[in-house]
Fold Lipid/polyisoprenoid-binding YceI-like domain-containing protein.
Amino acid sequence: MFKKALIVSASLLALAACSPSETAQSAQPAAEAVQAVPQTPADWEVSNAGITFLSSKINKQLGSVTEQSRFKASQAVLGKDGEFKMEVDLSSVSTGIEIRDQRLKDWVFETAKFAKANVTGKVDVDAVNKLAIGETVNLKQPLVLDIHGKQINLEADLSAQRISADKIMVSTLSPVLLDVKAMDMVGGVAQLVEVMGLSSIVQQIPVSFNAEFTRKE
C-alpha cells in the first residue's frame, strides 16, 4: 500500500511539473492567431454574394403565398478607404420557374435598358479591419441603390464577423425593404398580376444579403 502511495504521489508531481509548459503551449496558438490578423488597410472583395428577396402574391380568393428568389451573379468590393461598391446582374434573377424569370427580366427589371443594379456606401472600415478572429461588429449602414434609373437612399442593419485572418462574413441582421413604386416598377408588376390571374402582389420587397469577403493586399 505504501509503495502504491509513493507511485501515485510521484505521478501527481510529474503532472504538476508538466502543466505550466503544456498550458503555455496551448495558449500559444491562440496568441499566434491574434497576432496573425493583419492591421494594415486593405481591399476586401466578394463574388456572387447571397442576395435573396421575398415576393408575396395575393390570389383572387385573397389567399397569400410568399416565395423566395435570388440573384446568382454579383460582385462587390470594400476599398481600404471604406468605399463600398456592389454590382448585381439583374438578368441572373432566379425564381425556380424559367418563364417567371423571363417576365421579371422583360417586364419588371427591363434588363434590356437597365442591366445592372448598383449599391454604394461609405463604411467604417477601421471597425472592420480591427476585428479579431471570431469577433463581430454590427453596423447601421447608409447605402444608395441605383436601380431601374432611380437612386434610392437606404439603411441596412449589417453584421460583420471575422472568420479568419483574411475572411469576413457580412450579412443583413434584418431584410432591407424595397418599394416597387420607388423603383418605378409598378407597370411591370401590374403585368405580372394580370398574366398570373392574381388580385395583387405586395409592393414591399424584403431583400437579404450575406457574403464572405476576402482580404486583398
Observations:
- Residues 101 and 209 are 20 Å apart (CA to CA).
- The first strand starts at residue 43 and ends at 47.
- The radius of gyration is 26 Å.
